[in-house]
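Fold sample X.
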Amino acid sequence: MLINIFLGNHTAYDFLRMQDILAPIAAGLVEAGHSVKYDLKKLAPAPAVNLLVEFFQPAFTEELTAFKAAHGDRLRLGILGTEDMEDASVMANPKQPWRRANFERILPLADFVWTLLPNTDWYQTRVPGGRAKFLAYGHCASLREPAPVAPKDIDCLLYGTSGPYRERIIEQLRARGRSVFVSECALPDHLRRDHVGRARLILDIRRNEGVRYCSPSRICYGLHSGTAVVAERFDTSALGALYRYCEAPAPDRFVDHVDQLLKGDTDRLAADALNRFAAETSMRANLETALAGISAG
C-alpha cells in the first residue's frame, strides 16, 4: 500500500514540529512493507491512501470537502489526530476559533482515523463503524540514533516551550546547579540531534496542570535517541504504559528525582530503557493493527 503523508494544510514551521510525530509512523509503515511518501501539493488518487494530520483552516476545509465530493471513492483519506479534543487551550484557542468545528466537518469524510491519544470515545461518536483507532507508539529499529560523539554537557533538555508551569520546575533545577536547555521551538533535525545527543536527560513536563496526557512523541524520540527520559507521572490513561520506559516520578517529587538521577549513570539508565522498549513494543505491530480492515485498494 502507498501512504501519501499530505502536509499541504500545514505551515513550514509545522513541518519541524511534526518531525517527532510522523517519523515513527512512516518508519513503522515501511517496516510493515508499505511505501511512504510526503507531499505538500497533491493528494494521491486511489489506491493510494492520503494521511492528513489534523489542522484544517477554513479555506482548506472547503477545498477538501469539495474535492472529496467530486472524487468519492477515488480519494482515500486517513486522518491523524494529535490533540486532546477536550483541551480548551488548543481546541478553543481564540486565535483559531474554527479549529474544532472544521475538524468535525472533515472527520466524516475519512476512511479511517488514528488518534495518538486514547480519547477514542470522542471520535467514535463522530466517526462510526469502528473507523477511529488509538495508535500507540512503539520501538522502530530504523529510528535508533547512533551514539553521540559530542560531550554530554547539558544536564536536562526540555524540547518545547517553557511557560509558567514548566518554568517553575526549570528554575528549581537551575537553583540546584543543574543546566537546563529549553528549545522554545521546534528545532531542525541537525540541531535537535546535536542537543539531544548532548543531554543526559530529556524532560517530559506537561504545559500546565490541566493537561491530561503525557507526550508520546517526545518520549518515543528520547528513547530512540539513547537519552534517558524523565516524565511527570500524572497520565492515568493507556498512554501511562510509556512510563515503564521512563523515570516517572510524581510531580511533587520531580525535581528531587531528576537531581538524584544526575548523580548516577544516566547512560546506563537510557540503555536499559531502550532495550526494554525494544523487547516489549513494536511500531510495526501497532500499525498493522491500526491498518486492519483497510484494503490495499
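Fold sample Y, listed below.
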Amino acid sequence: MIIFISLFLLAIVLVINFFYIKRAKELEERNKKLEVLTAENAKVNQELQNTLSLLTSANQKLKDLDRLKDDFVSITSHELRTPMTAIRSYAWMALHKSDTPLSKNLEKYIIRILLSTERMINLVNDMLSISRIETNRIEINPESIDLISICKDIVDEVYYSKATDKNIKFVLLEQPIPKVLADPEKLREVLINIVGNALKFSHTGGRITIGFFTDGKVVETFVKDEGSGIGKEDLGRLFQKFGRLDNSYTATASSGGSGLGLYISKKLIELMHGRIWAGSGGEDKGATFTFSLPVAL
C-alpha cells in the first residue's frame, strides 16, 4: 500500500514537472517572440521617424517654392501691367484720335490689339488678386453699402460698354432691402465678374435679371441670364481655380476667360463673410448666380 501511494505521488510530481517545463518553454518562446517584435517595432519606428523627417523637409521646400512662385507671379504681373496699359492707351489713341484716316484693315488690326491687350490686363489683374488672396495679403475694408445703388452702377457700366453690341436687356428688380457690410471695391469686382459672365454667355437679344432677397440677417443678390447654361455635372467645378469646363459655361470659345473670375469672386465673398453659389436648368437654359452678404448693423 505504501509503495502504491509513493508511486502515485511520484506520478503526480512527474506530471506537474512536465507541465511546468512545458509552460516554461512556452514562456521562453513567447519572450523571444516579444523581443523580435520589440526589435522590429523599434526598426519601424526609426524608419517612420526618418520618413517623417524627410516629409517635413520636403514640405518646407514645397512651401519655399510656393512662396517663390507667389513672389514671381506678383512681381511679373506688376511688371507686365505697366507696359500693357501703355499699349492699350496708345492703341486707343490710334483708333479714336488718329491724325490721319485709318484704312479698314488697319482699324481691324488696332481693334484686335485693343481686345488682346484688354484680355492680357484682365489676366494680369486676376493673377495679382489670386497672389494676394492666397498669401493673405489682401485687405478687406468693410462698410455699409447700398446694393441696389452699386448694382445700378455696374449695369450702366457693362451696358454702355458691351451690352449694346448684343442687344441685351437688363432688368433690376428693386425692392426695399437693408444695407450690407462689405468692401465696396471687392464687391464691385465680384459683381463685374458675375454680370460680365452673364453678358458673355447670353444669346443676342437676351435678358439679364438682377434681384434681391433678405431674411433680415443676410441679403442675397442673384444674377440670372438666359444664355448657354451649365450642366449639372459641372456646377461643382465652377468656383475652382482655372475652372474652364468642356462644352459648358466657362468653355465657350468666344468667352476668352481665364477661368479665374469665379474663383476670385468666391474667395472675396468668403472674406466678406458671405456665400456664393450657382444654379442652372442645364445647357441652353440659362444660369443663376447668387451671393449672400451680412446685413450692416
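Sample Y note: The longest strand covers residues 207-214.
Also: Confidence is low (pLDDT under 50) at residues 246-255.
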